[in-house]
Every structure is written in C-alpha cells, then in structure tokens.
Amino acid sequence: MKIGINIFDTDRAIHPVELGQAIEARGFDALYLPEHSHIPASRKTRWPGSRPGHEDPLPDYYSRICDPYVALSMIAAVTERLELGTSVTLVPQHDPIRLAKQVATLDHWSGGRVRLGIGYGWNEEQTAAHGADFRTRRGLTEDCVGIMRALWTEDEASFAGKHTSLEPSWSWPKPAQPGGPPILLGGGTGPQLFDAITRYADGWMPITGRSTVADRAAPLKEKFAAAGRDPDSLKIVICGATTDPDGLAALAEEGVDTAAMTIWSEDRDEILRKLDEFATIRDAARGK
To answer: Domain limits of the chain?
Structure first.
C-alpha cells in the first residue's frame, strides 16, 4: 500500500516546491491537494463538517486554498516519483475541455504521476457561481468525465451527454497513462455513489480514519462484479487516513491502494515536524 500526505495547501502555508521536496525526501508515495475556487461570503450552505445540531463556522483556510493544478505542476517539476493527486477536483465547477487539457498536460510532463480525485461539491452558491445547477451536478459530473476520457483517448474526440456534449475535436497532449489518470470519486457510502463509481470511475476516495474499509467496500466490489468489471481493479484511496501504525497495516492487508494522512497545520515548521512524525508512523506500519 502506498502511503501519502493530504494537506490544505494555503497561501499561509509552506511553499509547494518545499512541500513536494520534503514529502518525497521522506519517502512518501503521494500528495493529495483539495480544491475550492472561492467561498461565497453569503454562507447560505451549511458546512458539512459542522457537528450535528450545530452551525459551526467554516474554517477560513477553505477560502485560502491555492489552485491545486498550479501547485502540483510546481511540485512535479522538482520531484521524480511522487504521485500527484487532487482530493478533490470539483468537476461541475470546471469547463471539462479545459480541465482535460490541464490534467493531460500535467500527466504528460510528470511521466504519468497524476491521480484525479473528483467530487460533486457541497456548496450550492459556489456551484451556482460557476454557472452549474446544483441539482444536476451529479449527472453533469458524469458527462464531464465522459468528455475528458474522450479527449484523453481519441484522436478525434466526441461525446454526447445529457447535460453537456463535445463536438468532434482534436486535443493534445494525451496523458502519459494509457486511458488517462485513474479517476477516484470521493464520498461516503451508498448505492447512488457506488453506482456512479461502477459506471464511470476507477476507484473510490473516502475520507475516513477507520482501520478497516472492507465492510464498506464490499457492496461496491459486488457492483463491479455484476457490471462485468474486475473487483480487484477497484482502487481505494483514503484521505484523512488513520495515524495508527496497526490501522495502516490493516488497511494494507485489505488491499487499499493508498492511505493519505492529513496535516491540518498551516505553519511551515509544524508541517515539517508532522512529516517527520508521519514518516515514523509509516515505517512502523510497514514493519508490522
């Protein structure tokens, strides 16, 4: 199992070049960065991280997140093997043609190191600011992925969807990875999410500190098998992963592809200290 880092990369935190080099130097396998283009000041949408029965304020680091593709491109230029991922790209808020170009270019020049975590988005007014309908964002996401895959794999690409389509078009570069980077759909559990993953994604990206996901992943693997897809091909990339060595070792036994431990600090020195701490935890887990 690969072990990586997930961090809110803000303008107050460590420079991406130093971050990427520090992560790779400590032997981690992957880095996953989240995305929020902006945070509407209206705050009409309740933060999903609020405690039950409370209206906790949204932490201000959400509005200070740097663009993940710019940051990952800088990191790609100064690293050699680190996997570069998003956790997650809010697909309905993007032009899929432009997003396909960004992802393909990063994968092309990084030598096939991109892992595309995607999500629907939880903030209604943020989604609306991008011209998307919050109510149809799931279907739009599926169509956008269809357009991106077509652009990544076809010399003359086209796609006909319910919410958006692509007329025959040319676009290069193609990603270094055949078929494009793995697409990992983020979310909890449930038939609607697992049906979507089965239809058009390569894997599942839950946020969980659990030491086991086998029970939650079992229905998804069953759906893969019923759809004629190999259940063993399902990629599971966990963000917010447990920092317990025994828990990490257990996830590895279950066949989890990647566990990314989260660093919450924006302080440079604390981030570097956490990387050292997490490296010790990783080594202990691999010694189990």
So the answer is: 2-286
Query: How big is the CA angle at 36 (ends 69 and 239), to the nearest 5 degrees?
Result: 80
Query: CA 173, 199, 87, 55: dihedral to nearest 10 degrees?
Result: 140
pLDDT digits (tens, 9 = 90+) for 93-152: 999 999 999 999 999 999 999 999 999 999 999 999 999 999 999 999 999 999 999 999
Instruction: Name the burial class of residue 105, with classes exposed (0-12), middle (13-18) and buried (19+) by CB atoms within 10 angstroms of its CB.
Output: middle
Spatial separation of the C-alpha atoms in residues 74 and 214, rounded to whole Å: 36
Q: What is the pTM of this model?
A: 0.97
- Domain 2-286: which topology? TIM Barrel (3.20.20)
Selection from 144, 140, 170 nearest residue 157 by Cα = 170
Taking the C-alpha atoms of residue 4 and residue 83, their distance in angstroms, rounded to an integer, is 9
- Residue 170, pLDDT > 90, answer yes
- Look up tokens 């705050």; give the residue: 43
Query: What values do phi and psi take at 70, rounded to 5?
Result: -65, -50
- Region 26-30: mean pLDDT is 98
